[in-house]
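Follow-up to my post from last week.
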Amino acid sequence: MAEHMMLIDLTKCTGCRACQVACKEWNSLRAEKTVFNGTYQNPPDLSYDTWTLVRFDEMKSKDRLKKVKWLLRKEGCMHCEDAPCVQACPSPGALVKTPEGAVVHNPKYCIGCKACVVACPFDIPRYSPKDEKIAKCTLCYDRITEGKVPACVEACTTGCLEFGPKEDILARAMARVKEVNGSLYPNNGYKTHVMYIIPDYARIEEYSHLNPDPRVPATELWWKNLFKPLTLIGMGGVAGLAVLHYLIKGPHKVEDKGTEGGDNNA
Amino acid sequence: MIIGSNAAENHPVSFKWVNEARAKRGAKLICVDPRFTRTAATADYYCPIRSGTDIAFIGGMINYAIEHNRIHWDYVRNYTNASFLVDPRFKTATDLDGIFSGLEDGKYNKKTWQYQLDENGNPKRDPTLSDPHCVFQLLKRHYSRYNIEHVSNVVGCGDPKAYERVCDLFTSTCKPEKSATIMYAMGSTQHTYGSQNVRVYAILQLLLGNIGVAGGGINALRGESNVQGSTDHAALFHILPGYLKTPKASQQTYQRYLEDCTPVTHDPKSANWWANYPKYASSLLKAFWRDVDLEEAYGYLGKIDDGKNYSFIPIFERMAHGEINGLFCWGQNPAVGGPSSRLERRALAKLDWLVVVDLWETETASFWQKDAGVDPSVIETEVFLLPAAASVEKEGSISNSGRWAQWRYKAIDPPGDAKDDLSIITELVYRLKDLYRTKGGALPKSILNLSWDYGLKDVDGRIHHPSTREVAKEINGFFLKDKIVKGKLFKAGSMVPSFAYLQEDGSTCSGNWLYCNSVSDTENKMMRRSTSDPRGLGFYHEWSWCWPVNRRILYNRASVDDKGRPWANDKPVIWWDRIAKKWQGDVPDGGWPPGTKYPFIMLPHGHARLFAPGLADGPFPEHYEPLESPVKNFMSSQQVSPVIVRWDKLTHREITCDPMVVEGCVAALYGTEAAKRFPIICTTYRLTEHWQTGQMTRWLPWLCELMPALFVEMSEELAKIKGIKNGDKVRISSIRNQEGIVAYALVTKRFRPYKIQGNLYHQIGLPWHFGYKGLIKGAIANDLTPFVGDANTMIPEYKAFLVNVNKVQGE
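User reply:
Got it. Predicted complex:
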């Protein structure tokens, strides 16, 4: 199957979260026992059991005819072309970039080292201490290779989500962005298989948890080219990797990740 | 324009088409709502209005349209009653400071609301629209008070310039080739003047020539996916299927009933479609009782006492007085969904028996349990819970907001003992017939003679697997004997091809004349799934079936001029083909050549009503404050609708089981001490993540995680005054429920105080999805809402009432 892409046209998102539920249903993900947290956003963050979610950001606006902005954004794996998580992953087969464009994790081979968690410029893969593995959106690899669209796209009520061959989606994105006088994301040359159209009334920086300048972290290039082949031969064990990882990155802190990709620009 | 609706959240699929209109045709979206909703989030313009001020907001647009000549004159002159002359004694609310002529003892005497008639009995007309007594001049006078500044002050939008720009944008569709549509829902209807809210939309759209055209209309987004179907098939007390009238006690003979219900016109150009009333009524009686003559069948029909109301509020009021013995709650959860739901739960305890048919044990089914906060040992009601099949576990039709009746198939069998509705009711019919046969009872014949042929009979003479396909055939109707109609012979048992073939003499049956044409001898058209749309206008004539006779746009004869030429050439609905001498495009609203019949064929005069003398509370919509409002009415000195239906006035008695309700209904008016104690406006609403009372969604973990608890939305300004932080537990109380209910505070920029005549008024909002059963629980928002209804329909005023809100101390 040829390379495919997903377009998330935020001018059309109504935050209905059908995508969020469809994802859980298709992938048989557990419901989380959530509590009220002061927003409509729930579960509050991506997790091992929540691979996609709509983020809600509200702010005042200077537009006289619309004095508030409520930005709605479906978040999930961006399926990078040159995926840092795949590069970082020391366990063969645990994270794979497929010819279709999907970055797919395989729990069978995941050793729970969290290298991908650190490497991801979008803070997407999530580790579960209980399951000792990571999980994230697979672009519904099991659906798209059967000629179906991902579950979220299938469920999308408003036409916000589109999925198709790469060239078609790119052309569609270019046309649409002109139509709505919006902007594309990512717009810094970083290549992904998921793209956003940002409405004219919003700026990228106004969306929470959206890295304005995604890049492959410098540590990853270093790791990939030098250390990864060596360690795989030399160490060949989970414990060794964990030690190494600790040496390079220090203890894993969820709070810090938002800036980490940006700070370590290559 | 989306007003009184939150389409993005509550009708998400409808929003796909809103988006398509914006993408393909450059449509602009205006969202009018007290809250900044997810609809507002994607709209081009957002107009905040205080709950219950729709008539002021739209009335201002009407005044703007008239003052700025934004009128589709040909349309207004020829297709509406603008030119009709009204009794010179009629006075508008502008003349009488908020009321219309004829108010006597809390009710309108409508004798001055009549047209002046000519010698043939037809309304006199002034095509120049200049006679001071013509409808247009009266309308102009009535709305002359609704100017931009004044309306901005009433609705509290705080920015007259912004309002003016929206008026300018919307009324720019007065050009014949332009159109605008209005989508509305319960935000419009659930007010003591809910009918008039919808009427005011209709008046605006008629002035702009936006009814019957492509992209026009006023579109009710129905509250559930099959509310349209349930209304068409009359799950209401005052109508029979197909909007026929429920007979009254005073109409003792069938003849008298037909005479009362069949309108007459003396104008040859008026099609007066309801003249066919007897054909539809006879066919309906024959669908109920195939083997009984019409007069006897009419005798079987239940009659309502003249002037009595049997809608939701009066039913529960009577129940609370112990006057109702038993209740079937079929897919309904009044313990959570009804107004003043505490009262409704107490009323349920006065029943001898209650049957609940639902997917889970609802709050209604468990009103007697400890969960409900009551002592089960003192409740004597016998409760039966019948497990029902979900929508995917049964087959049948669903009629959507666009009147499309779409067939749905069964995907899986229902679990356990759960049964589809038809199986449950079939079993009930047999048991009732047995009981009436063996034990007798009052009026046994209507049950004993009831026709029930929805499937093959087993050896015991009974149907054990009833089929909705057979029901669909009866709804369409068939010939009961061989009959020649319009020169064609129809054999007994053959389907009636359309309602034009239904008979008055009892030779046809039809369960609902509007659905006649949905099933033919060869196919059930509701099952069609062709996406062919040759003209690209979105009609999809071969996708399912649309009542009436597959007409996709009602009143489409109003989309053309008197020569049959479409107002908008780029999006014609119908047009007259002069060579073929017939209409092309959509199924026309009657096949008569252009200019020979008036387009609004369901009205006796054939003209759409800018002036509607049939309503209880005035021929023109007038702004009143909700029954509970902290604001003085600045439009007139009439604070609330003068003919508001209050249950205590209706019945002249008090509800003894809950004295607070009595106080609540009368005490929270503007200016009273009670209103000062409860100064905050509250509204209730739904979220996209839950469904109605939550009886289905609060049992599904994937939906529970999205919206796990009851919250109350409020502005940062109000939260600051009250010392409330986002996420705090707060108590919301009303005059009816002073101990109040507890919810989490959601402090948001999306709520703003309203500035009215220099004062700030705060509004909060509560979802009503929560109750005491389910995986997630929460307080019931309707424990606060008033037990008061619209003057015409008795729909409860859920959308505007007064509360107070305070932080729960120690939390």
